[in-house]
Amino acid sequence: MLKKALRTKYKALRNQLSEIEIEEKSLAIANEILKLPIWDKTYFHVFLPIEEQKEVNTEFILHLLSGKDKEIVISKSDFESRNMTHFLLTDNTKIKKNEYNIPEPVDGIEVPAAKIDVVFVPLLAFDKKGNRVGYGKGFYDKFLSQCKPETIKIGLSFFDPEESILDIFENDVILNYCVTPNRVYEF
Predict the structure, then answer these.
(1) Residue 132, marked binder
(2) Is the pLDDT of residue 171 over 90?
(3) What mean pLDDT do residues 102-125 have?
(4) Is residue 129 annotated as involved in ligand binding?
(5) Which backbone phi and psi does 98 adopt, to 5 degrees?
(6) Which ranges of the sequence are coiled-coil (predicted)?
(7) pLDDT value at position 3?
């Protein structure tokens, strides 16, 4: 399928999920993440979900990471430049929703992309080769290309993979893993 059709399909599928289903599936995803070989890493980048888009609730992942004393990094998006600035999440971090309802840090201690070891990547769909479909603005592809080559990229999805995404571009960054409520896919 093409990315545009996949965006339409998976937005519709997510819209059918109840709040309870989102919570249960998000918790199951967090439990699957425990199986990944990532726990020797230090800097973990986590997206804060856009509730209106029914994204995976990453609160459970945040609890896991803080329980394991990991450094948690969250981002602020600049829609003019399509760049993301990354900040350390601390007890003092103030979170505010931007005009697109994305929860973001107001300010804080900046962390360069090259320092991040693991990135949890939001997505609408993914395929069996590790390609992903996001909202189409290119924020994550740009960000992931700024990370070091060994940074582990982990997609989070409520749904299983598509066979293949047909319109892949050379700048599209492939995932190392994608975690669903039922299993971990490795690429």
Answers:
(1) yes
(2) no
(3) 96
(4) no
(5) -85, -175
(6) 3-30
(7) 95
Instruction: State yes or no: 119 annotated in a binding site.
Output: no
Asked whether residue 10 is marked as a ligand-binding residue, the answer is no
Domain hosting 129: range is 3-186
DSSP string, 107-130: S--B--GGG--EEEEE-SEEBTTS
Query: What is the distance between the alpha carbons of residues 52 and 83, in angstroms, rounded to a whole number?
Result: 22
The SS3 call for residue 1 is coil
Q: Is 55 annotated as a binding residue?
A: yes
Question: Which residues make Cβ contacts (< 8 Å) with residue 177, sequence separation at least 6?
Answer: 36, 152, 153, 154, 155, 184, 185, 186, 187
137 labelled ligand-binding: yes
pLDDT for the residue numbered 142 = 93
Residues 116-139: pLDDT tens digits?
999 999 999 999 999 999 998 889
Instruction: Tell me: is residue 97 an annotated ligand-binding position.
Output: no
Query: Considering the entire predicted model, what is its pTM?
Result: 0.95
- Total domains in the chain come to 1
- Domain CATH for 48: 3.40.50.10420
144: amino acid identity, one letter = L
5 annotated as belonging to a binding site for a ligand: yes
